[in-house]
Every structure is written in structure tokens, then in C-alpha cells.
Design brief:
heterodimer, A: alpha/beta, OB fold (Dihydrolipoamide Acetyltransferase, E2P), Rossmann fold, 3 domains, five-stranded mixed beta barrel, five-stranded parallel sheet, 9 helices, B: mainly alpha, 2 helices, about 55% helix, elongated, exodeoxyribonuclease VII activity (chain B), Exonuc_VII_ssu_sf (chain B), coiled coil (chain B), EC 3.1.11.6 (chain A), nuclease (chain A)
């Protein structure tokens, strides 16, 4: 090309062609400087190191994590010479914070943004059904976390229809794949009752996909209640913070999702035992009351009988007083015969029967 | 979903709770108690059988999520 005369346009076109051929996609790590957003649509910034700086351009749509000056990032971009302005730029396809400080910064910025929109509010949280019948799981089916999750739900519960969407859970494509899976399950005619998203532990960089803004929003917008368990107890991601129910780990997600069948069986038996106890108690109460009623009835009958016997005793005493034998014993005599002079009388005392003749009869 | 002739474990558990509630409630009568107790016993046994037998049906969906294509 040494002796070829080119117009500016031709030079720019040739340069871009060369760049496109030699560097279709580059990954460049550097620190953000002069970050600005124009018309709420276009994002301009520079990335730099100790000795060099390069301009970057992207759309708001491509910015998955809030950025600001000083953050260390890796941009995935195509280099391009802008013929109109004569400016060399990286046309950014994706940008992700790197290094603990920048990842944390990106996380905090996005957390603050979503929090301001009320997406973490307690009032938004929907409860999960206690015993779901149909659930959806988004995870990498090749992961140990998935194997553990399945092992635990099989141990704890049965009769569950589980549809699993296999996606990457780490790296640049992971967030978009999980978003597509969320949309897929939300578009089903018969919606699953719970949407579970799980991933095992990893470094902050490994878990970065779960701090992606579009993924967080897809979880927030899911028509299906969400249960997210990512990493270990100490890991907090925006995906799990925005979900309806946060599980500390994938294992914890399985435990939150379904009850323990052994516990339910124990509880059912305990309830029947309690009912049996109530029944026995009721029978005892009824028996005691019946016994008390019978005793009261017998008592009343006994009282009536005692009254009757008392009255009988009195009558017997009174009757015995009228017995002539008792009168004779008191010294009286019974006189039989006509009370005329010359008649014979029979006199009965307690010990003797005496015959006597009437010698005189006078008026008293 | 379950129909009336084939209630789910959850429905059986709800029924069991109702029976337990009946024993503690004002409608309790000794005449009906033995029958209700037998029902509760049978339900607990059914729940145990169901929960012991039931297996989960796990399917990986065929759709791929690595691109926008359906």
C-alpha cells in the first residue's frame, strides 16, 4: 500500500477492515475515566492504565452494571476508527468490573439503584406454596450444586414435577441465558408454582452474573414466585436479594422449597396420637360423669328408702302401742261377758284368765 | 391438581387438621368421636403411604438458552 494514494474515506474503510480482520473482538482491561451518559442512551468513557488511554463507546442497553470513574473493568469490544470524527474507539459489547474493589463498587451502585426503585421491598415478596407440585429450576445441570439440590428434594419430598433449564451460571453469557430461561418458564401456559435459580459457591468474579441488572430485573418481573440460592451463606447477590425468597445455598433452597416427608409423617402420627388422647380423655370424662350421675341417683333412691323406713318405724311403734298384749303388760285386764248381777265374767290379765260372778252393778 | 376421589397429600393433611380441630371444637360429641378418630387414623396412614411411595419427576427441558433462537 506504500505507493497507493487513498482518500480519507478509503483510508478509514481500509483501517476498519484491517482492524475487523485482525481484532474482531478484544478484551481490554483498564480503569474507567471520564465516564458520561448522554441523552440517557449513549455511554462514553475511557479506559486507561499507567501509560495509555483509549476511548470507549456503548449503548445504555449494553451496560449491565452501573459504572463510574476509577472502576477497574474488562471491556469486550471491537476497535473502530470513526471516520466522521477521526476518533479511534472501542465499540463496547460488554463491560464487567474486575477486582474485588470494582466488583463491590458495581454491586453497591446497582444495589442502591434497585433499592431506590423499591425492588427489594418486603411488600413485594411473595410466599412460596408449602407443598408445590410443579417447579422450574434454572441452573447448570453439570454442577455439584444441582446434584445436591436434586438429592435433597428427592430425600425430602415426592410427587414433584421438576422442569430444569440448563444454562451457564458463570461467565459473560450466563446472565442472558438465565434471563431467557426465566422468560421461557414465564411464557408457559401452565406456570410452575416456583422458579428456583441455584448456583454453587465461587469467587466474586464467578458470581458476577448474579449481580447483573437485566437478570435482577427479570427475576423481579417474574410472574412465578422466585427462590434464589447462590453461593455460600456469606455470599449476597442482587439476584437473591431481589428474589421472593432468598436461600443461603442451593441446599438451603431445596430445604425451603419442600417440606421433609419424614417430618410430615411424624407430625400426622402425632396429631392422631393427640386426637386419641382427646378421645380417651372425653371417654374418661363421660364415664366419670355417668358414674357420678348414677351415684347421685342411687343416693337419692337411698334417701327415699331411708325416709320410708323411718316412717315405717314410727308407724310400727305407734301400731305396737295399740296392741292389747302391751296394754295387759302394763297391768290392765280385759273383761268379757254381760255386766249384769249374777252373770259370769271372764277376766284376762297378762298372765291369767279369771272367771268371776257379777255381784253388784252401779252407775259411776 | 387432584380430584375429589384422589385427594393430594396436602388435601389429606388439611382434612386431618380439620379432624383434629373438630376434637377440640364445640361440635365434639362422643357419639361421633370414634368414627372421626378412625378417619384420622386412616388418613395418617394414607399420608405415610403416599409420602413414602411418591417419586419426583425431573426433566431437563430440551430448549437451549444459549441464543435467542427458539
Amino acid at each position: 500500500m506504500e505507493n497507493v494514494l487513498l482518500s480519507v474515506s478509503e483510508f478509514v474503510a481500509a483501517t476498519n477492515q484491517t482492524l475487523e480482520y485482525a481484532y474482531p473482538v478484544v478484551h481490554v482491561e483498564g480503569e474507567i475515566a471520564e465516564f458520561k451518559i448522554s441523552q440517557n442512551q449513549w455511554v462514553h468513557f475511557k479506559i486507561k492504565d499507567e501509560v495509555a488511554v483509549v476511548s470507549c463507546f456503548m449503548t445504555m442497553f449494553q451496560m449491565r452494571v452501573p459504572l463510574e470513574d476509577g472502576m477497574k473493568v474488562v471491556v469486550t469490544a471491537s476497535p473502530k476508527l470513526d471516520g466522521r470524527w477521526g476518533k479511534f474507539s472501542l465499540i463496547v459489547r460488554a463491560v464487567r468490573p474486575v477486582g474485588e474493589g470494582s466488583i463491590k463498587k458495581g454491586f453497591e451502585l446497582l444495589k442502591a439503584k434497585l433499592e431506590k426503585e423499591g425492588l427489594f421491598a418486603y411488600e413485594r415478596k411473595r410466599p412460596l406454596p408449602r407443598m408445590p407440585k410443579k417447579i422450574a429450576v434454572i441452573t447448570s445441570t453439570e454442577s455439584a450444586a444441582y446434584a445436591d439440590f436434586i438429592k435433597i428434594i428427592n430425600k425430602r419430598w415426592g410427587g414433584l414435577d421438576v422442569d430444569v433449564a440448563h444454562t451457564q451460571v458463570q461467565g459473560a453469557p450466563a446472565a442472558d441465558q438465565m434471563i431467557r430461561a426465566i422468560h421461557y418458564f414465564n411464557s408457559l401456559e401452565a406456570l410452575p408454582e416456583v422458579l428456583v435459580i441455584i448456583r454453587g459457591g465461587g469467587s466474586p468474579d464467578d458470581l458476577a452474573a448474579f449481580n447483573d441488572e437485566p437478570l435482577a430485573r427479570a427475576i423481579a418481573e417474574s410472574r412465578i414466585p422466585t427462590l434464589v440460592g447462590v453461593g455460600h451463606e456469606v455470599n449476597h447477590t442482587l439476584a437473591d436479594m431481589i428474589s421472593d425468597v432468598r436461600a443461603a445455598t442451593p441446599t438451603d433452597a431445596a430445604q425451603l422449597l419442600v417440606p421433609d416427608r419424614h417430618e410430615i409423617i411424624r407430625s400426622s402420627k402425632a396429631q392422631v396420637h393427640a386426637v386419641g388422647f382427646l378421645l380417651t380423655q372425653a371417654i374418661d370424662t363421660y364415664s366419670r360423669q355417668t358414674k357420678e350421675n348414677l351415684e347421685a341417683a342411687f343416693g337419692r333412691i337411698q334417701e327415699r328408702l331411708d325416709d320410708a323406713f323411718d316412717r315405717l318405724g314410727i308407724l310400727r311403734v305407734a301400731t305396737s302401742q295399740l296392741n292389747p298384749e302391751h296394754v295387759l303388760r302394763r297391768g290392765y285386764a280385759l273383761l268379757r261377758g254381760d255386766q249384769t248381777v249374777g252373770s259370769l265374767l271372764q277376766i284376762e290379765t297378762v298372765k291369767h284368765i279369771i272367771s268371776a260372778e257379777v255381784q253388784d252393778v252401779r252407775q259411776k | 391438581m387432584s380430584d375429589k376421589s384422589n385427594p393430594s397429600v396436602q388435601e389429606k393433611l388439611t382434612h386431618l387438621s380439620e379432624l383434629v380441630g373438630w376434637f377440640q371444637g364445640a361440635s365434639f360429641t362422643l357419639e361421633d368421636a370414634l368414627d372421626k378418630f378412625k378417619q384420622a387414623e386412616a388418613l395418617a396412614e394414607e399420608i405415610e403411604n403416599d409420602l413414602t411411595k411418591l417419586k419426583n419427576d425431573i426433566k431437563v427441558v430440551k430448549k437451549r438458552f444459549d441464543s435467542e433462537t427458539p
